[in-house]
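Q&A log
Question type: sequence-to-structure
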Amino acid sequence: MKIGRFDSREMSLSRILRALIRRLRNQIHWYKWKHSSLYLENQRILKSLSNIHSGETCILMANGPSLNRVDLGKHMSVPKIGLNRIYLSNDPSKMPDYLVCVNKVLINQYYQEIMNVKAMVFLDYQARGVIQSHDKVLLVGGGLFTKEFSVDISDGMYVGPTVTYAALQLAFHLGFMKVVIVGLDHNYHFEGGVNEMQSVDTDMSNHFIKNYFPVGTKWETPDISSSEYFYSKANDYFLRHGREIVDCTDGGKCQIFRKSNINDEIS
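Response status: OK
Response body:
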């Protein structure tokens, strides 16, 4: 049974308390960020990126195993948005023009790698404490009263439960008319509940490369139900504005977006 965006089978008092504490902490961080010396310049640059790709098509590369089965070689000139550790790919055609990473656990562990990526990088603003240089990255995020889907991320952005949702808001802000998704398998293998902080104790098969999360590192278990809720939000916003999200993942389990083949969507 669904209660809003939540699956009642996954609800518990401890989860509710964790969510309330997380939101309170986020609001404190948001207040500090909005009153920092970097905030105004960061938001000015974000504003300048609005609609710079107006009317264009982009490829959004998620990190599922199916990413290995898609050939992007014939689409080298198409702008690409990558997620998290997409830079681990050895395929030059899968190097992103824009990289989005909003999970603080992941950023804290891999920020040195992220800083070496040859792309414009968008990180959660709460990661600003670990970033040594701000000239390669822009910070995104929002507070308690930030809209669930932002058409202008310089006014704040609710990152949601999955980096893919944050990337879809970025794509809208940049002006893309069509977002073609690949690698969104939407099918995870893990033990335990959703949104649990876990230490990796074995190699998982959830991503396009072995040891995406090496043994001993931390990760947060995904929330499929909440992800689908926010995917629906994003899909509605795109369609309402005459734009489109198309899921071209080979064998993907997500049923929110229109399904297609990448070569039928990009000539």
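Response note: The first strand starts at residue 2 and ends at 3.
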